[in-house]
């Protein structure tokens, strides 16, 4: 189905605002890029309206405006070398991308957003804040703030997912949980966190695209859906959780090796325990949707478009992991 020209223009402008932030050489231009990003994303949230979309859009607008105020006001004092101001900017960026401990708005917002907008929110909307966080992350107080965010993301994301039955909320808490590994990779190396984020986006897009195509929003709908869809969704979720040998395991393994090489045992244990909790609610989804509903599971071959999409989904989960083995 062709995209409406106005929506295409908003998506194009959204990408332009990201490039503006990336290429900016002053905090004012960065702030302008972030505000453009906000202005162009709100219409996308309202493009497929439901009873919660207006509330979600208003909530997103207010949160992003408050985060922008924190960033631009504290950025004015960065030239004076006040380290506390760097931490305030960092907090504003964490708030913008829904990172713990400033994450409360994200799970409550996702119920009014379509799967397509969630792809943008979880993937594109995090690029600018993450790059700015990597720029600000230095030795000293900002490192301590980053470690607080890493621990908070690991635990809040994992525990929140355990208490959710909505697939959109589970994906929101999953995003928060993965943020802990991304930030940890950022502490270790720019190449590591960029690799992790790229693989995460690939797997997440695969999962969200499947949910969007099948119009799945809750665990009950997943159970009642086609059994092949259940199987592919289960594999996708296990990959997202980082279970070997799927793609999601490789970047976590790379970060784990670097943590052990640098003797960061405590933070490694924290991240690993958070990942085990996350895997628990992913495996719970798989057990409920596949194993407990497997009595009527009948596989038949039919070469149609939906089959091809599912095959692409599975290849996207396994083949990239083979590529990373040779890096």
Describe what you observe in this structure.
The chain has one domain. Helices cover 76% and strands 0% of the residues. The protein has helices at 5-23, 27-46, 53-75, 83-96, 105-109, 115-122, 127-136, 141-162, 167-188, 190-214, 219-224, 227-241, 249-261, 265-291, 305-325. It starts with a helix and ends with a helix. It is an enzyme of class 7 (translocase). It catalyses: a ubiquinone + NADH + 5 H(+)(in) = a ubiquinol + NAD(+) + 4 H(+)(out). Belongs to the complex I subunit 2 family.
Per DSSP, what share of the residues sits in E-state strands of 2 or more residues? under 5%
Categorize the overall geometry: globular
Question: Care to count the β-strands?
Answer: 0
Extract low-pLDDT stretches.
Answer: 296-305, 319-327
**Whole-number mean pLDDT:** 82
Question: Which bin fits the share of residues in helices?
Answer: over 70%
CA distance, first residue to last residue: 38 Å
Question: How would a crystallographer describe the biggest sheet?
Answer: none
Q: How large is the radius of gyration?
A: 20 Å
SSE pattern? HHHHHHHHHHHHHHH
Structural class label? mainly alpha
User: How many domains, as an integer?
Assistant: 1
Number of helices: 15
In short:
Helices cover 76% and strands 0% of the residues. With 327 residues, it is mostly helical. It has one domain (5-325).
